[in-house]
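The protein record passed on for reference:
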Amino acid sequence: MTKLAEQHRCDQPFDIYTLFKCFTMDTIWSCGFGLDTDMQNNPNDPYLIQSQRVAAEESHISPLIILLLFIPELKWLWNGLQRCDGSVRYWLTNYLPITRRFISDDVVMWFENQTEQLIKKRIELGYTKRMDLLQLMLESVSDDDFIQDQPTSTVANTETTTEPPLVRKLTKHEIAANIALFMIAGYETTSTALSYIAYALATHPNEQRKLQEHIDAHFDFYSRREFPFADPHAKTVALFTASGLRWKRQRFVINPTFSSLKLKQMSPLINRNIDSFMTKLAEQHRCDQPFDIYTLFKRFTMDTI
């Protein structure tokens, strides 16, 4: 808000997208990983610069990525070559600075090294009262480099399935991967959405006024502080792209409130929304006229969410 006030006093057009990108990264790194960043006042912050490189339009697609897409059977080879390429670039640009004139370091490798350092420092500090995402994951860290997940077994001649107990641990590599994913997934999407919302409100002053009046009438500082779902929501954000049993274990460790039992308890709510959706479809069918089903699906989706 201070930066916005400064821009307002200048009484000149400005790019709010830049402010939102800095604001988003400050929030992600401070709330998610406990770093005291100030990117809104320091546009040359290395975390911000590297994040911008990830989403930059001029960032090229590695030939190894193309090979991975078209020949996935050899993904072990392409992944290995990609990591070797990233390691060589990182070593050259950090230990032989003159090479930066000819090659650029690998942004993914940069983030991996930074996350490993974050994890190492936090483990050395021991328990901390900072309730950020990193601390939540480190409470379940394992010293093992790999955790073998046991598959679900089916009893012969029966329909009974037996699920082995989940290992309530995460490897350091899994924690580092989720830190990088959380940053990359949240940076561009959040800042772009905020910028578009700001643009829409700026170009529709009547709607902006109505929204402001609604916020002033129904929300205040204390009601936001007492919002009962804030903490559970922060702990149940879906962060992972790992498949199968590995994803199940990670979800179970990080998201204790997101269990299969609680999903089943949501079934009546979901069924109610489905019934309402089918009713709307029946109404449209009786009208015997073309209609935009996309609109109905959007409403159904938001009702369910």
